[in-house]
């Protein structure tokens, strides 16, 4: 039985995403909003799948570079492969902390996201807009060795932080206590490739889910002070592309992505 405080009469970004990827953890309000978005961008699921592959590529690359601690903020509903499955597949001892503030996400995470290696998987009910509370939580202070690098992933979540200054402040506060060698992975919504995507952004906002689309320059600015890993900020299917990425049309991808080191 789902948690009581779900607000099922209002769309939620994680559940819209779930519906568009063919999942079953969504409600009528989410489905209505998603179908309206598909009228503007019929191949929106292509972009969402490309974004999922970006997460996989980014965290695998960071695990292969030796990072063993991953803080995933704005987790969303479980969709395989999940972040811990990727990183613990590379490094079984890796520790992962998932952070979200949606009760449905957390209920499913606790039920479904179990370690695949010898490392740990923890779940934290916290808000992206309160980074200090995330870093002070036991899941982080006891689950991580904060003298060693941590990879922070903000995948398809910062579009819900409308104000650029606030978004940069969140990143600064999340990353400031972490040691050199830590990493930051971001993907963020754009409509630079196809102005029709403005309709999808408008639908999110009209349904009470704040979303802003950013240009490449605006996404690059989120990485200010960090060293971007090649190829920098690019459409997510162009970031170290795998076979599935090479069949994707640029016009169908509405996300920029990048990974950087501290």
From TrEMBL:
The keyword Methyltransferase applies. Its EC number is 2.1.1.-. One of its GO terms (molecular function) is methyltransferase activity. Keywords: Methyltransferase, Transferase. The keyword Transferase applies. Coiled coil: none annotated. Pfam families: Methyltransf_19 (PF04672). GO terms for biological process: methylation. Gene3D superfamilies: Vaccinia Virus protein VP39. InterPro entries: SAM-dependent_MTases_sf, SAM_dep_MeTrfase_SAV2177_type. This is SAM-dependent methyltransferase. It comes from Actinoplanes oblitus.
């Amino acid at each position: 039985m789902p948690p009581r405080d779900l607000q099922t009469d209002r769309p939620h970004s994680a559940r819209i995403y779930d519906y568009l990827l063919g999942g079953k953890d969504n409600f009528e309000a989410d489905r209505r909003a998603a179908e309206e978005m598909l009228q503007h961008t019929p191949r929106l699921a292509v972009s969402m799948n490309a974004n999922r592959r970006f997460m996989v590529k980014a965290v695998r690359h960071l695990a292969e570079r030796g990072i063993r601690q991953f803080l995933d903020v704005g987790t969303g509903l479980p969709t395989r492969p999940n972040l811990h499955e990727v990183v613990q597949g590379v490094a079984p001892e890796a520790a992962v902390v998932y952070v979200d503030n949606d009760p449905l996400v957390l209920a499913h995470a606790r039920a479904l996201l179990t370690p695949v290696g010898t490392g740990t998987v923890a779940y934290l009910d916290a808000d992206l807009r309160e980074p200090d509370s995330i870093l002070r939580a036991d899941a982080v202070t006891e689950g991580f060795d904060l003298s060693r690098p941590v990879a922070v992933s903000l995948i398809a979540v910062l579009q819900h932080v409308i104000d650029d200054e606030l978004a940069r402040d969140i990143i600064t506060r999340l990353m400031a206590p972490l040691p050199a060698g830590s990493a930051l992975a971001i993907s963020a919504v754009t409509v630079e490739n196809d102005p029709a995507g403005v309709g999808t952004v408008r639908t999110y906002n009209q349904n009470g889910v704040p979303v802003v689309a950013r240009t490449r320059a605006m996404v690059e600015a989120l990485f200010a002070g960090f060293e971007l890993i090649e190829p920098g900020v690019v459409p997510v299917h162009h970031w170290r592309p795998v076979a599935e990425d090479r069949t994707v049309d640029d016009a169908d991808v509405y996300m920029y992505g990048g990974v950087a080191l501290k």
